[in-house]
Request: fold
Amino acid sequence: MTVLLEASELFFDYHAHLRRRDPDASWTLRDINVTMPAGSTVGIVGESGSGKSTLVRLLCGLLVQSRGRITFDGRSLTEWLSQDRREFHRRNQIVFQSPASSLDPRLRIKTSLSEPTKALEQRKPKATELRNWLQDVGLSGEVLSRYPHQLSGGQLQRIAVARALSVRPDVLYADEPTSALDVSVQAQVLNLLMGLKQRHGLTLVLVSHDLAVVARVCEQIIVLKDGQVVEAGGTAAVMTDPKTDYTRTLVEASRATSLVRS
Amino acid sequence: MLEINDLTITIGPHQIVSIEHLSIPAGRRLGLVGESGSGKTMTAMSIIGLLPRDAVVTGSITFSGVEMVNRSERDLSNIRGAEIGVIFQDPLRALNPTMRVGKQVSEALRLHNTVPSKDVKKRTLELFEQVQLPEPAVLARRYPHQLSGGQQQRVLISMAIACDPKLLIADEPTTALDVTVQKEILELLARLSAQRGMAVLFVSHDLGVIKAISDHVAVLYGGSLVETGPADDIVGSPRHRYTEALISVNPGHPEDIDASLGKPLVTIKGSVPPMGAFLPGCRFRGRCPHEIEQCAVEPPITEMTGDHSFKCWNPVDPAMPIDSDDAELLSGRQ
Amino acid sequence: MTDQPPSPEMSAPEMSAPEMSAPDTDKLEVFESTGSASKRWVPPQLVIGGVIVAFIVVIGLASLFWTPYDLDKVDVPNQFLPPGSDGYLLGTDKLGRDMTSQIMAGARNSLLVSVVSTIASLIPGVLIGLIAAGARPFPQRMISRVTDIGIALPGILVALVLATSLGPGNTTAIIAIMFWLIPMVARVTIGPARQILSRDFVEASQAYGRTRKFILFRHVLPNIGPLIIVQASVMFAIAILVEAALSYLGIGAQRPTPSWGRLLKEAQPLLDQAPYLMIIPGVSIMVAVIGFNLLGDGLRTYLDPQQTTKGAGV
Reply:
């Protein structure tokens, strides 16, 4: 498999402008090295404050690293953003945690769903396209004329996924896509992501605090703690034979509250 | 010790909770599990009379033989804190941000006059030790925002147990915490309950968490108690179709990770309907894959041995496809 | 502004497929958030405020074409007629001029000054607020401090200074009110705009390459729109009060321009003799202010997108 995305020696600090005064201040992310082959599923796991959300925002160009280099499809991210900004965003899309907040409450679903195409391809999507996108995530065209508050959390999250996929990205980042949903709906959204990944040959990057979820979806796991990668590797290896104490604690804590499954 | 009978909670046109019977014996831990809109928080808060003003409560809730429904605010606030302790999901909102945490615990002790005032400080530090806060004397002088989420929750627990309550109501106390901290808090609550003979009503949306802490589990869906029983029975051999579904949608920790990787998870179709949009009859109707015609009628409570009961017309069969009891039960099936 | 979420029929939930289905074949039912067919509820404040404001607008406009008597028709024999006198509904002043006509024409001037000054303050105020909210931390702090200074300036003093250079009149009143309102509008815009900017849909919008400017005008502005409308109606009320105050001090409207504030000023020396000359314009100002405030309050409830049932969002 070819390497689609590579980050090396990545540092990030939200208060970069204060660093000159206090060069020893802790980094939000420090010395991150990540490689993602095309078509892989990668899970980024960590507790709150570990920097997992910050990392995906750097990778998809919403934040700019303080130091280090990100390469996407052979070109550096800096180059992408200065020369082919639209094309980069088209190929890298993201879905957020809170379905209620990820759609503008004053816009009809139709308008929100058309936005990426309008912004990135400079055209208005056809009605049949909109319906196809919705069908892809298991919704009917009925929702097009609705407003976000008229839909359930699971439906909104599907729409957010459909919106991200409408520009046929190569990589889909999902930042805790199910943690705001009911357990009975969580499985629907995870299945949807896995199915779409298969059908569209996506590279899927799933950020989650829930190891059980990541273990079902991702081939690779990256464990973050305090802004650093403490462990990375194949899911089965990391879950069954953790190399660090921290990962072991994490796996045990997750097992303690998990229901035994045959 | 706590007994709920024919409890209904109504807000405006919608009946939000309707529970026939639920009890917690002294010193036991009951887990109340339900998704959003199940009425689990309403049920818990109705015990201590902390409901929205427009909520109408009927039925009976007795605590140590005393009726709690429609009690005066004054009586309730005496019971709250002294005999029933409460902890919430977001400890930072439950603590006063402008007061040192040690002082807040001392205030709780003074309010209910449980210890002589010269001992209040000593007792506060003892409580901090019991909830395993490191360096109690140092932490007592901190403000809430200077503590980690887990420490804040421990402070809140120490406040809740300050007056030796007989019952502790814990409403999603670990949902906002990291998994490693969650495990510690669950262990702490289990230990405190065992040491003090304190009953616990633990409310959560996560059956895994509930199973880790409770002896007994009550499953709520759409305001209706669909199944109650010992925790191992509920998780090991559920009878109600909703309980079964709730267990099977859990991603769990499979033995063979590689084999299950990328395989679809079991799902429940649709999502929890909003308040007032539940179909008549069984609440799970419309989402249940085992629905039969009778489900349009509210199912009766089926009592089983071992304190296990459920409300389902077409329950999970623990052993064989249809045995004699079930055949009778399902006679109306077409 | 009034594009409101529709309230379609509730689609009957279908209950087929007895299997736990995979999501790609799963058809979800769309349900109303309240479960019942909902009509938009019109809050009573909106109705009462709307009626008061409409009444003031109607009499103000009518005074352009018709008033019971000529505004400046002096009729000394009929001076100091009390309200309710034959042919003079609100009585007459010391020169026998009809109060009804004066109040009608005064409404016109109050509205003119408040509409012009409110609109002239809203546009720059909202722009400054949006720009500040979207700016980096440093310029944002700078703009905030400048608006703080603007708010701290005593408005009456500014008006007095303006009057010495521009001379008294409506223009002076309008400019003085703008000085007063622009920093206020900017200030109330920044907070909510920043709140909207922190929502996920803004980040999503950035992820498909939208610029700050686009996000500010297409996402933030519509979302704070209701707030601005509410603010505008409160500003109308403030502008009416300030206009009356300035006219009372002699900086605003001058005779022959009719004005409620000026009527107050003229009635003051005659307080013992004819108290109604003060009460009538005073009550007019009060009613107008209450009307606009009620209208604003009602609009806030009405424009809340989540408002589907009675009392929601109050």
